[in-house]
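Exercise 7. Predict the structure of Signal peptidase complex subunit 3 from Iris pallida.
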Amino acid sequence: MHSATYRLNALFTFAVLPLAVMLLAASFLDAFHSPSVQAHAQIVKINRFTKRNGNDEVRLSLNISADLQSLFTWNTKQVFVFLTAEYETSKNSLNQISLWDHIIPNKEQAKFQRQVPNKYPLVDQGKNLRGKEVELVLHWHVMPNTGKMIRDKMSLSSFNLPEAYS
Ligand SMILES: *[C@@H]1O[C@H](CO)[C@@H](O)[C@H](O)[C@H]1NC(C)=O
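Solution. The predicted structure, encoded as tokens:
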């Protein structure tokens, strides 16, 4: 009774429509999901504060605790999280230096507390760090199975670097 084209079309619709609806629902649910991230980060110790090749360089120990479990939905593939040191200089209104990062593969591992040395050194483009006020900011990228990546951040604390090199 029906033409082959019609049947093919019906088959296509049958197969693709549920998938489309599912993808749409996933994005829709994500849009209405409002996570509540809790996090703290503090400088435990300044291990070294030096000037190298004319640039200030800091090595330090951080105490990071975070609960990012609310970022995980059934559509979450993984969460990339990184901690930056942010400060202002006369040259740049925002200097943003990544100190530590981590990939969280699942909800079970999204709540943690750890003491770590900075993975990447805090190096200034100059000699601006003595006595400088630095803000610690946690950034996260939620990578979904389908739909848009969500980026957000949260300011955690601030501290002042020493007035003198060590
Ligand atoms: C690290 O942070 C956790 C949670 O904020 C706190 O309970 C712990 O005492 C801190 N440890 C140090 C060495 O600061």
